[in-house]
Design goal:
The protein has 346 residues and is mainly α. The protein has one domain. The protein has 14 helices and no strands.
């Protein structure tokens, strides 16, 4: 477990005679609380900054009334949304409809438990951590499918169908790229994957894989131009068409949380994680957060400059371009670690 938190909990456990299992559980809970605080802070500031950048690109003012530079506008929106009544559609499956969004949020927090934020600040350090992250990410489209189907709305049902199609089209390229990273690092452990990039980040060693994975993350987490599950020009809001204000506010929180998780995963696998050109107190965490912010800001640039893809083009793009490139990237990774490139004079 995270060494800072674990040391405090261990001392507490020894003082009160708690066993090792309770010690591990307490440490995991505290790390999850710290992660939730980090997610909340990121989501709030990222949502405000995205609105400001989009307003600038569209020649609008954006948030500028509530608080200096409109910094408190998101807080006002949160209070407004949560204060309204939560209504369940008549034709919806009540329990599945209400359970889907909290389940998605819990899943995202659990995924973050698997992601180390520095050498000394992490939740669960597994030898197959990368595989666990892949499996957990694969559940997100399934939960969105349940949410769309349970809404009892035709737009939600179409959104659910699109979730399954995207799942089939983009999961395989994502897995192949993750496998290539594991091959290059010699491990599925996320800590070892980051340490393997001490001399050269995998974004330079596996440039094709980096490009494919970045695009796949956009599709997996519904960022433009791949936000076809809730395409407003076609499906109104997709699986959120019948969502009431409190439900919708949690869904917005989930959207920005997925941006954070996607940026962290990209940083860990391809940008060297917490490795920086020089060190200082808490430098590992600081370098990782700096890289995550840069990736997240680039996602805003993509949103304001690119148009949404059609569903048929998106699926064709996944099967005919992303999948072959992912296979080529995996073969390149095998060639790198097998010593074939020097023999070929490369």
């Amino acid at each position: 477990m995270n060494s800072y938190v674990s040391e405090v909990i261990s001392n507490f456990a020894l003082h009160y005679g708690l066993n090792g299992v309770l010690n591990e559980i307490a440490t995991a809970i505290i790390f999850a609380v710290l992660v939730l605080i980090l997610i909340s802070a990121f989501d709030y500031m990222y949502g405000w900054f995205e609105r400001k950048v989009m307003a600038k690109a569209q020649l609008r003012h954006g948030p500028n009334v509530v608080g200096k530079y409109g910094i408190l506008q998101n807080l006002a929106d949160i209070v407004k949304l949560l204060a309204k009544e939560n209504i369940v559609p008549k034709n919806a499956n009540k329990y599945l409809f209400l359970f889907s969004v909290p389940l998605m949020l819990a899943l995202l927090i659990f995924i973050e438990e698997m992601l180390p934020l520095s050498p000394n600040f992490y939740g669960v350090d597994l030898s197959i951590g990368l595989l666990v992250v892949f499996v957990l990410i694969s559940f997100t489209p399934l939960i969105l499918f349940i949410a769309g189907w349970a809404s009892g709305n035709k737009f939600g049902s179409i959104s659910a169908d699109r979730s399954v199609m995207m799942l089939i089209s983009y999961e395989l390229p994502m897995f192949l790229v993750m496998a290539s990273v594991a091959v290059a690092a010699g491990s599925y452990n996320l800590m070892q994957i980051v340490n393997a990039q001490s001399s050269l980040p995998f974004a330079l060693l596996l440039p094709v894989g980096f490009m494919v994975f970045f695009i796949v993350m956009l599709a997996e987490f519904e960022r433009p131009p791949f936000d076809i599950r809730e395409a407003d020009s076609e499906l109104i809001a997709g699986w959120l068409t019948d969502a009431s204000s409190p439900f919708y506010s949690i869904a917005l929180f989930i959207d920005y949380t997925r941006v954070l998780l996607g940026s962290i995963i990209i940083t860990l696998l391809f940008l060297g994680g917490w490795i920086g050109p020089f060190s200082f107190p808490f430098s590992g965490f600081a370098w990782l957060i700096a890289k995550v912010i840069l990736v997240a800001l680039f996602l805003i640039v993509i949103r304001v400059t690119m148009i949404r893809m059609r569903i048929d083009k998106l699926l064709r793009f996944g099967w005919t371009i992303m999948l072959p490139l992912a296979v080529v990237n995996l073969l390149w990774a095998f060639a790198l670690v097998s010593g074939y490139l020097p023999a070929l004079g490369i």
